[in-house]
Design goal:
- With 556 residues, the protein is an alpha+beta fold.
- The chain folds into three domains: 131 residues, no CATH class; 121 residues, no CATH class; 165 residues, no CATH class.
- The strands form three sheets. Strands 1-2-4-5-3 form a five-stranded antiparallel β-sheet, with helices on both faces. Strands 6-7-9-10-8 form a five-stranded antiparallel β-sheet, with helices on both faces.
Length: 556
């Protein structure tokens, strides 16, 4: 009986010691590393995997590297290089993504850490002190910052930075080592000009902001950055001139950008659709450009420029309808020539919308508006054509749109040739086959030429859609339909807003002080004030009385 009691007592003591040992090991493991249970199962969906990135780094180097491998899986471009630094042989590692980091930057970091660290005399037990020595004394020539969470670590790895880990420290040193291939600065193909700068934006956001800094050398040019896209983490920046741009406009731009919650942002068009005032309209409520001179001029008027990493197109807000019909050449050429070309451009844009519809309405309902000889010639040219005028114009306009789209999608070397030759052959064959009349070919060709005069491509696309609407209105109820459509179009333009600014200004509402840069373009020495609503915070642009005059002849 005594033996049984002794045996039971021994067993209970051993079981208690075993439980206490398990509890202590579990407690010490949790205390040692915050990454217990960090392992990501292959069955987790993307939102669950992204949620795990909020974890903080551990003091244990092995745990951090294991977590990074677990995050990136079998990715072959993930590079982890181990090293031992200093006479104390402190363990460390450099993590980077191959292809995004320049190799000479990595070699410089390793040389500094491994060779220069031999001059330090830090005991192995003082690894955090060794970390401070590297950060404050050895890596002073590099752009560095500290990272403490995995989401920031992954974001900087994808941005071309190298991560330096030291065992015993729950932070990583982020070293700027970008080295990916970039497109050279060149003239934008879609916004060519006869006179003016020849450089355009690239896909690098820092290159683009540097172009603006080089033009506007004032410290009042402020650039704010944020990351948008849960998966792409695209860097977006907006620039403005502090003290010139309205604080309400800056706050509105910041608010609209911050409330975007989307998985990916691959182009500035993603941003544009989220922050525009009215999505249900054909007209662009923001300007997009590849020209640094246009962006600089807009910033000097009190506007905001929005840059998106990965695209050369910069968004400008707010914008007006009349500004989309202006070109940079207007401000580089002499005033009379600029006035003529600008008004010719405005007439051509409206002509590209109304010309086919007016032709259909006049030939179908209002013959009395044309000279008798012209009416007889049009009627004789339509003999044998099996379609009504509206269907005839509609079909030819659709055919031309298909040719234009095919010319854009084909390789540049043959795209323009095929589109031009295809239009000539198609028009000639259609006339010979008796499907369309020669007058319709002329109307469609004039409409296409007029649409090509619009500097802003996104505004030119609106005419390609609106002309079909006016063809239908003109073919059904004649010029009364054209008038009705014009009135509705003007009312729609007057109701639009671009970040609170009237889109049809200075026409609706009437702002006569801005007319000197609307249909006409006055001399630079006479453009004393900025636009009324956008630049009202600081209206004066220049000192008055600078009109050039010949020097008075001195009497001898």
């Amino acid at each position: 009986m005594a033996v049984d009691k002794l045996f039971l007592t021994k067993i209970s003591n051993q079981w208690g010691d075993h439980c206490m040992g398990l509890w202590q090991r579990l407690f010490n493991r949790n205390k040692k590393s915050d990454l217990k249970g960090f392992h990501l199962s292959d069955s987790l969906v993307i939102s669950q995997r992204e949620g795990r990135l909020k974890e903080k780094l551990s003091v244990d180097l092995k745990s951090n590297l294991t977590a990074i491998r677990d995050l990136y899986g079998t990715s072959s471009d993930l590079s982890i290089r181990h090293f031992k630094a200093g006479p104390e042989q402190v363990q460390g590692a450099i993590v980077n993504i191959e292809g995004l980091v320049a190799k000479h930057y990595l070699e410089n970091i390793l040389e500094v850490v491994q060779i220069d660290s031999l001059k330090t005399r830090i005991e192995p037990s003082h690894q955090p002190d060794f970390y401070q020595v590297i950060k404050e004394r050895l890596l002073t020539a590099l752009d560095i910052k500290e990272i403490s969470t995995f989401d920031k670590l992954c974001e900087n790895l994808a941005s071309g930075h190298a991560m330096l880990f030291i065992n015993g420290v729950d932070q990583a040193i982020c070293c700027g080592a970008e080295g990916w291939e970039k497109r050279a600065v060149e003239e934008p193909a879609a916004e060519a000009s006869i006179r003016g700068p020849r450089e355009g934006f690239t896909e690098s956001i820092r290159t683009n902001t540097a172009m603006i800094r080089r033009r506007l050398k004032t410290p009042n040019l402020w650039i704010e950055s944020l990351s948008i896209g849960k998966l792409t983490r695209t860097q977006v920046a907006f620039a403005y001139v502090k003290g010139l741009t309205s604080d309400k406009l800056v706050a509105e731009v910041r608010s609209r950008l911050q409330r975007i919650d989307i998985d990916a942002v691959l182009e500035s068009g993603y941003i544009e659709e989220f922050i525009e005032d009215t999505p249900f309209t054909l007209f662009p409520l923001m300007a997009r450009t590849e020209r640094p001179d246009w962006v600089s001029a807009s910033l000097l008027e009190g506007k905001v420029a929005i840059f998106t990493d990965g695209t050369p197109f910069v968004l400008l807000a707010p914008i007006t309808f009349i500004e989309l019909l202006q070109a940079p050449d207007d401000y580089y050429e002499r005033v009379p020539i600029a006035i003529l070309i600008r008004n010719l451009r405005i007439i051509a844009y409206w002509g590209s919308i109304f010309l086919p519809g007016v032709y259909v309405a006049v030939t179908g309902f209002h013959h009395e508006l044309l000279p008798s000889e012209l009416v007889l010639r049009i009627a004789s040219s339509r003999q044998g054509v099996p379609f009504p005028v509206m269907v005839e114009v509609f079909i030819m306009q659709l055919a031309f749109e298909m040719l234009r789209e095919a010319g854009i999608r084909l390789p540049r070397a043959i795209g323009s040739a095929i589109s031009i030759v295809g239009a000539l052959i198609l028009g000639e064959a259609a006339i010979r086959a008796g499907l369309v009349s020669p007058a319709v070919i002329i109307i469609v060709a004039l409409t296409a030429i007029a649409s090509f005069t619009v500097p802003a491509f996104n505004l030119g696309q609106t005419s390609r859609l609106l002309l079909f609407l006016f063809i239908i209105l003109g073919g059904t109820i004649g010029l009364f339909g054209i008038q009705l459509g014009l009135l509705l179009l003007l009312v729609h333009l007057c109701t639009l807003r671009s970040f609170g600014t009237p889109y049809f200004m200075p026409i609706g509402p009437m702002v006569f002080t801005d007319w000197r840069d609307a249909f006409i373009r006055t001399w630079w020495w006479n453009m004393l004030h900025r636009p009324h609503l956008v630049g009202s915070r600081e209206m004066d642009r220049e000192k008055p009385g600078q009109m050039p005059r010949p020097e008075p002849r001195r009497r001898e």
